Amino acid sequence: MAGSFISRGFRGRRREDPAVAGRVPPGQYVTPDFPVLSAGPTPHTSPREWDFTLNGAVDPVRRWTWEEFRALPRDTVTVDIHCVTKWSKLDTVWEGVSLDTLFAGIEPRGAFVTAFCDGGYTTNLPLRDVLDGQAWIAFAYGEEPLAAEHGGPARLLVPHLYFWKSAKWVRGLTVTERDRPGFWESLGYHDYGDPWREQRYQGD
Amino acid sequence: MAGTAVPGRLAWQLASVAAKRQETPRVISLRLESDAWAGHLPGQHVDVRLTAEDGYQAQRSYSISSAPEPGVLELTVEDIPDGEVSPYLTEVLQPADRLELRGPIGGYFTWTAADGGPLLLVAGGSGVAPLMSMLRERAAAGSDVPTTLLYSSRSWDEIIYREELERLAADPTLRIVHTLTRSHPADWAGYTRRIDAAMLAEVAGALLPGSLAYVCGPTRLVEQVATDLVTRGYPPAAIKTERFGPTGG
Ligand SMILES: Cc1cc2nc3c(=O)[nH]c(=O)nc-3n(C[C@H](O)[C@H](O)[C@H](O)COP(=O)(O)OP(=O)(O)OC[C@H]3O[C@@H](n4cnc5c(N)ncnc54)[C@H](O)[C@@H]3O)c2cc1C
Questions:
Q1: Which one of A45, A160, B95, B236 is least enclosed by Cβ atoms within 10 Å?
Q2: Which atom of ligand 1 is nearest to the CA of B87?
Q3: Which residues in B12-31 are b (16+ Cβ under 10 Å) and which e?
Q4: What are B145-186's pLDDT values in tens digits?
Q5: What is the ipTM of this complex?
Q6: In this structure, are residues B121 and B131 in contact, taking their beta carbons and an 8 Å threshold?
Q7: What is the CATH number of the domain that holds A144?
Q8: pTM of this prediction?
Q9: Residues A79-97: pLDDT tens digits?
Q10: CA A48: distance to chain centroid?
Q11: Is the minimum distance from the CB of B247 to ligand 1 under 6 angstroms?
Q12: Inside any domain, residue B134
């Protein structure tokens, strides 16, 4: 029934620009803005207090201070991002440290990770989705230090999943043997969140 | 995923437009009926999906502004010039038309009478929609949780739900404070500027145990108010925010 429904009189104004055909997942539209979405106030953590930890089912546990983290090899990446609230933003430019660099020399004993953050936010991902050049801890956006409202000092960047997985204000990853729903995932959002399969909510 | 129970899919449902009400020159409310609608928690939203004849689709989120009720929900929509979905909802859609939606969505930005307070609600423009669901629920439940609504609008004529808010404010435990940021009636004695820290200090008063704050509107307002509330001593976990869009109110 719902499959063949047509909205009387709707023609649509923001049809896909042929130049970006194939880059916009179903149900998404392209925006030049960078909307902000968070569930609460923006934490303001100074780099002096910031560190990044890999813990849980890993050997050894690792921790980097801001200085140590910023001394690691960095990548500049240009990626498309897709927010579950329907906007996509194309060709965003980020600078960050690849998760491959952070996991080098570490033996994970679980197949999942939970990102944890200032402000208490968490999100869960399969470990294989953050390795092999698919994820970064980003500290700059558009050649500027990452603004606090967009997740600074640093956020996770996993552009192939809906953007709530790219946790703002990230402070570390906990490797787990079982997939444990994070903040939004416990509130009905999808555990995996593939925008190309439109996995917005549980059961999608 | 292995080991996790998969609750029922949030299926698309066809609601019919039972009524359409002009709230302000740029804002309408839609009363929607659907047998499949089980009710919601105040603060939650729905996804609306429009489909053109050639199959092109557009989706957007809209907060539910009515009190929870099986079979019925209301949305309040501001007409965004050059927008794709909001002008359709405000100008094209009419009573007896049908609208595809799914929900309710979002389990964090929610309040029911059982959550208590004191409650501070801060709204900019159409950001009042989910807060109105909370106020309507509060009235329907007969709750006397001390509640303040601080509501920023551009002008007197752009105050959404103005008359209903006046009626609700007869309740001595509910205080409603408006600020009019662009223009105001000649005899207006209230605030005439954007919400700032000084205004929050005057309106919110002393922070009491159990205080909860809900802030909804354009990003700039939400960022500012949430940060000011943290400075005033609100625990970050007691401040819940929802951001509608880049600009506005
Ligand atoms: C959780 C959630 C709940 C929401 N609840 C409501 C609600 O109750 N009522 C409501 O009216 N809207 C609500 N919104 C906003 C709504 O989803 C749409 O973004 C809005 O209606 C604009 O969609 P559009 O298709 O008309 O414009 P688009 O075609 O998406 O955008 C057109 C232009 O307008 C700009 N724009 C987009 N949104 C706004 C805005 N809010 N103010 C000013 N400029 C804007 C865009 O940047 C763009 O340049 C909510 C959004 C979210 C994420």
A1: B95
A2: 26
A3: bbebebeebeebbebbbbbb
A4: 999 999 999 999 999 999 999 999 999 999 999 999 999 999
A5: 0.88
A6: yes
A7: 3.90.420.10
A8: 0.93
A9: 999 999 999 999 999 999 9
A10: 24
A11: yes
A12: yes
